[in-house]
């Protein structure tokens, strides 16, 4: 099963011992410190982007982002691995390149953590800023502010958006039981909680909408496929947490891919519609026992694990004749995790973020004789997500062999420098390395080359599976100039 997916991670940024708050300038400084850019002068092509297009059939009011060339270069960095490093609002953000499998996605997302850590190391070497900045892969600063983690899945345009909403809502509301990263306390004027499953759940206020920063919806309606609009739509999922655990990330995106694939192919899940999804997502986040029920539209009360089992049962039936080992692996892990969640969630203290963090914090509280409201516990909650490997609590557990891994250190190192070989990211990454002075700009769906005499040539990349090593690798090996490349590609 090859499906195009990718993630965008907004990182929390803080400056120590500072009387001023300027996260935008700090974020710009951070990404401009990355020393391994293949084409530093290239900028991002906003030409075909329109985040105001709504899948419900209209364009929202607002102004499209179109920074000038110099500011564009400050905000956007094109990476050798085909991904993007940039500033979004007041946060540094990393987008993975287009991936075709959950395992690839895990590797390239981890590569993003290392890229951001490198930026931080270089920034903190500056005398004035030495040791000043900290970066966290989490979703809240515990001061009422939440920042996003967005998943992107390319699906067929023929799949009606209304069906996506109906089918995906119960799944996404309950998916947090294995995809949450854990959170101390509550925010956004929600009911109190000592500890809960998801960092993002408190911040969702509506069921379906276009916004991502205010009145956040469970189902986001952005209709911006970054591909052939006649063939594809992109499901922009903003309801998930940023995860440190590789197994958690793998399950999060792997199960979502399977559910979307079976919906595309005509199999639907019925009988699990929620009476109030916005209330439900908060109730699930607070149910550490996995025993409480949420109310369905038909009046029944079901547990989150029961709802997830309904999706799992449908997926196992739908893919029963598949011989794809990646599908079999996701289904197996999904079932094992649900069984352990029902028996005792703490059995998953090597695999699932919210359980890993809970065990770590409870061990500390037992040693220190403190409770959930102790400020040291709140600090542990944040430090779990520190991207600096020598400081982050998750990485301490990783070094000690206390968490399971899926990506090898060698694969993560390679993913910082090289793009996936089976998507259009390969063409983008290779061109950035081979023609660093000639790449004028790039986006997900285009490459722009400076061909001389103040002329720019655009090559569209509307099919995310074209531009792979198999299709263009030999061409890129052979050509010596951009003119030769364009001639062979467009022949």
Class based on secondary structure composition and strand pairing: alpha+beta
Quaternary state of the chains: single chain
* Tally of contiguous helical segments: 15
Q: Calculate Rg over CA atoms.
A: 22 Å
- Can you give the mean pLDDT? 95
Let me know the number of strands.
20
What is the distance, rounded to the nearest whole angstrom, between the alpha carbons of the first and last residues? 31 Å
Give the overall silhouette.
Answer: globular
Low-pLDDT parts are none
Strands across the major sheet, in which order? 6-7-8-1-10-15
What proportion of the residues form beta strands (DSSP E)? 15-25%
What fraction, in percent, of the residue positions are helical?
A: 25-40%
Number of domains: 2
Described by strand count, sense and barrel closure, the largest sheet is: 6 strands, antiparallel
């Amino acid at each position: 099963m090859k499906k195009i997916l990718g993630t965008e991670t907004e990182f929390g940024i803080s400056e120590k011992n500072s009387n001023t708050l300027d996260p935008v300038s700090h974020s710009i400084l951070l990404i401009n410190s990355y020393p391994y850019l293949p084409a530093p002068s290239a900028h991002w092509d906003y030409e075909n982007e329109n985040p105001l297009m709504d899948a419900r059939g209209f364009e929202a009011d607002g102004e499209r982002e179109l920074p000038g060339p110099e500011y564009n270069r400050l905000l956007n960095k094109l990476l050798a691995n085909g991904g993007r490093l940039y500033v979004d609002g007041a946060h540094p953000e990393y987008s993975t390149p287009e991936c075709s499998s959950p395992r690839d996605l895990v590797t390239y997302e981890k590569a993003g953590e290392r890229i951001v850590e490198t930026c931080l190391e270089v920034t903190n070497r500056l005398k004035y800023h030495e040791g000043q900045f900290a970066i966290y892969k989490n979703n809240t600063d515990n001061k009422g502010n939440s920042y996003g983690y967005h998943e992107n899945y390319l699906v067929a345009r023929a799949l009606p958006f209304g069906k996506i909403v109906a089918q995906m809502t119960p799944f996404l509301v309950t998916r947090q039981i294995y995809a949450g990263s854990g959170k101390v306390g509550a925010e956004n004027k929600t009911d109190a909680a000592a500890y809960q499953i998801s960092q993002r759940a408190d911040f969702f206020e509506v069921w379906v909408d276009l916004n991502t920063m205010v009145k956040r919806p469970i189902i986001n309606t952005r209709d911006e496929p970054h591909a052939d609009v006649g063939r594809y739509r992109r499901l922009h999922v903003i309801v998930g947490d940023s995860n440190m655990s590789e197994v958690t990330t793998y399950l999060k995106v792997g199960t979502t891919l399977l559910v979307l694939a079976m919906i595309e192919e005509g199999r639907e899940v019925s009988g699990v519609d929620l009476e109030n999804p916005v209330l439900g997502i908060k109730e699930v986040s607070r149910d550490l026992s996995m025993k409480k029920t949420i109310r369905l539209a038909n009046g029944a009360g079901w547990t989150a694990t029961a709802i997830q089992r309904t999706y799992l049962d449908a997926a196992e039936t739908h893919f029963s004749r598949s011989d794809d080992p990646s599908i079999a692996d996701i289904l197996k892990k999904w079932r094992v995790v649900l069984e352990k969640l029902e028996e005792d969630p703490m059995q998953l203290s090597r695999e699932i973020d919210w359980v890993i963090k809970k065990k770590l914090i409870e061990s500390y509280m037992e040693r220190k004789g403190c409770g959930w409201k102790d400020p040291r516990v709140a600090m542990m909650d944040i430090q779990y997500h520190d991207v600096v490997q020598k400081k982050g609590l998750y990485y301490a557990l990783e070094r000690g062999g206390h968490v399971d891994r899926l990506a090898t250190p060698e694969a993560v190192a390679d993913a910082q420098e090289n793009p996936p070989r089976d998507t259009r990211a390969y063409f983008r990454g290779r061109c950035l390395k081979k023609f660093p002075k000639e790449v004028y700009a790039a986006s997900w769906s285009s490459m722009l080359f400076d061909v001389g005499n103040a002329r720019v040539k655009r090559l569209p990349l509307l099919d995310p599976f074209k531009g792979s090593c198999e299709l263009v690798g030999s061409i890129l090996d052979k050509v010596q100039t951009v003119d030769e490349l364009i001639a062979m590609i467009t022949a």
